[in-house]
Amino acid sequence: MPTNFPLFPQQASAQAGQVDAIYFFMVAVTAFFALLIAGLIVFFSVRFRRRHRDEIGVPIHGSLALELLWTFVPFVIAMGMFGWGAKVFFDLYRVPAGAMEIFVVGKQWMWKVQHMGGQREINELHVPIGRPVKLIMGSEDVIHSFYIPAFRVKADVIPGRYNTLWFEATKPGTYHLFCAEYCGTKHSGMIGSVVAMEPAQYQAWLDGGPADGTPVDAGAKLFQDLACHTCHQQDSQGRGPVLTNLFGSRVQLQDGRTVVADEAYIRESIVNPQAMVKAGFQPLMPTFQGLVTEEQLLQLISYVRSLSDAGAAPGAGTAAPTQPQDRSTLENKR
Ligand code: CUA
To answer: Cα separation of 213 and 236, whole Å?
Structure first.
């Protein structure tokens, strides 16, 4: 855990430079105009001060050229900031294909991490450098926010949906991890560290850690334990839809909508099965709300994903960023 408290966090991700560049540009523009205006106020106050008690001010004549200048210049600067900011935002938002995936669950008051190989950690996150890492994050209880200042990334972790966040660490080291959303009494204690390692060391760490089954294995076991397999059978004879090759496909719902079977859809179908019933099926499935934890939900989702060609390779990443899809399925619900 770093003990020093620098004024500015170090840059340790591929995105950090981009974020800092626009930040410093905006600070510089703001400082320039603040000083210019403050200086002019003082200068004009002295230069045009009232010299006699009965002195009357000279009427002001408008200047179209000046009006245009001080409208157009700020417009160009503001639009430049907007365009630049939008570019950085989209780069931060779009997960590159092939990113390594890691599950993160926030709960009062800790971060639980599970790697696709089965390794688990609490309040620690080990990642390799030089490779995009995508976090799929959910919350067990209230809103938290996953924040790694050195990587310049932060995303809310929200109960009932999955948010993603990606970064590519560039420098080996140990960095602060904070919860950046007030989440109760021990919010300030919901901290941890991110350990960025050389790929070889990371592999050694993965091999050395106790792996109690991959999320896919755990999900497959849960699938049996919860008796999901009695309705979701391999062939279409079951009372529930066949799950093979479901993940990533488009699902026609009973109410006429079509949704993409992504993480959010599968989660919703487990905790609130009546919300999105597949066309041609009866709303028979009971809810598993409260019977499975967020971690178990992620394991079940991993298992369902592993049944599809699209989602089979662990850590290989889904083809498209899941976030916009998450949003669409949830908005359909509301
Ligand atoms: Cu979790 Cu603040």
So the answer is: 29
Q: Which amino acid is at 174?
A: T
Output the CA 110–ligand 1 centroid distance in Å: 8
Range of the domain at 114: 9-39+64-212
> Which of the two residues, 322 and 22, has the higher pLDDT score?
22
- Within a domain: residue 45? no
Instruction: In whole angstroms, give the CA distance from residue 124 to residue 26.
Output: 33
Q: Are 15 and 157 members of one domain?
A: yes
Residue 9 pLDDT exceeds 50:
yes
Nearest CA to ligand 1 atom 1: 144
Ligand 1, pocket residues at CB < 6 Å = 106, 109, 144, 179, 181-183, 187, 190
> Which burial class, exposed, middle or buried, applies to 179 when counting CB atoms under 10 A from its CB (0-12, 13-18, 19+)?
buried
265 & 314 share domain = yes
In terms of Cβ atoms closer than 10 Å to its own Cβ (0-12, 13-18, 19+), residue 278 is: middle
| pTM (two decimals) | 0.68
Is 44 domain-assigned?
no
Residue 215 neighbours by CB under 8 Å, 6+ apart: 103, 114, 116, 118, 298, 299, 302, 303, 314
Lowest mean pLDDT among 58-72, 123-137, 228-242, 320-334: 320-334
Of 159, 181, 212, the domain-final residue: 212
pLDDT in tens, 220-276: 888 877 878 777 877 777 778 888 888 888 888 888 888 888 888 888 888 888 888
Residues 90-132: tens digit of each pLDDT: 998 898 888 999 999 999 889 999 888 878 888 999 999 999 9
Domain C-terminal end among 212, 234, 258: 212
Tell me, yes or no, whether 181 lies in a domain.
yes
Residue 109 alpha carbon, nearest atom of ligand 1: 1
Q: Which of 143, 209, 168, 175 is nearest to 13 (CA)?
A: 168
